[in-house]
Structure prediction request, 445 residues.
Amino acid sequence: MKQATVLDVRQFVDEQPFSRFQVLVAVVCGALVFMDGFDAQAMGFVATSLTAQLKITRAALGQVISTGLFGMMIGALVCGPLADRFGRKPVLVACSFLFGIGSLLTATATSLQTLVFFRLFTGLGLGGAMPNAIALTSEYAPKRFRATTVMTMFTGFSIGAAVGGLVAAGLISRFGWQSIFVVGGILPCLIGFIALALLPESIRFLVLKAGSKERVNRYLSRISPGSGPFDELVVGADEHRSGAFVVKQLFTEHRTKITLLLWLMFFMNLLNLYFLNSWLPTVINDNGIRVETAIIITTLFQVGGAAGALLLGRVVDRLLSFTVLAWAYLGAAASVFLIGEAGASIILLVLTVSLAGFCVIGGQTSSNALAAEFYPTAIRSTGVGWALGIGRIGSIIGPSLGGALLSGGGQARQVFWAAAVPALIACAAAFTAAFIHRKERGSTG
Prediction:
């Protein structure tokens, strides 16, 4: 009688070389994150043209930006649990079409009210796509390359933000502010069709949900041609199916402290990231530097972020430690503080802004990777989604807080001193998480 072949799919993926199939997953997910970065900067680039044509104030435009970020928060909080119940792929594809259609509708806005509604709609899709792109990329990457893969995929955000500036410079003067949202709407829809055709479902999700054995074996053979088929598939002793209320499981099995600390890190770091995204060009220009130069210097924030993601990824893969993240946040605090001290020195601004991008954006990609690694398959999208959702609250507060400090008569250097405080809080949270994680792993080892 033939003995059934049992395969641990998690161990199988971890032991295989990185295949073209896994690269495909990371590239498609990276394309979706690229559009998130593109859209994140879009409102800043069209601000002048938009306010002039629709005759709305800067304060009203701030409301529009905050509404879009609020939509991202709701999307992250809702779509993470949905993906853990119904699958990564269908939610990811749906979110791609959602924010594509929302962006196209934004191009048709003729009043503040319609603009606010369309940005909320777009934000729902953007916020829902991010945690599922991170989760799916994580689940297809071998453990030895997992953080590097997730963080390299996430450089799509920085690249998208930088490309957004180049596209805006070429299109707005010729075709108006609407052209940015037309491009930002067509591309996600195209990516959605590509994802529908080429993107696989998570193998671990299918096994946990008793999915099609033939489908799982087909995916495994694309990772390692000639392998299988396997009669019985498992995903490891520590994996389990999600319960009825997935969010509750973020606080079970000794996960409560790390979950809360992750939320604090995401909140503080995204507050800083969106504060810098929103106000760097204005503050640099206020110091007497030409606006064109200010925009170029601000672009280096994204370039530094891409470099941070690539370099920190290998370190995180080797150590899998929150301590690495803590040092990144400490670097973020120092670099943000020094931006305020740079004054009108272009050389110092180039150095400090690049370092801030390396540490702030690199720190965010590291926290994404560590969150994806910390939570098991059954609640991974929920864990990452809720961390991002809580972080999005910080992203809403950051631009408004910066505007209030600058409007209140605070000097630029004092504003950046204040902006260093959230990074220090995130640093303390990461060091605490590292201590707790080491202690709990030691007690169960």
In short: The chain has a mean pLDDT of 83. Strands lie at 6-8, 232-234.
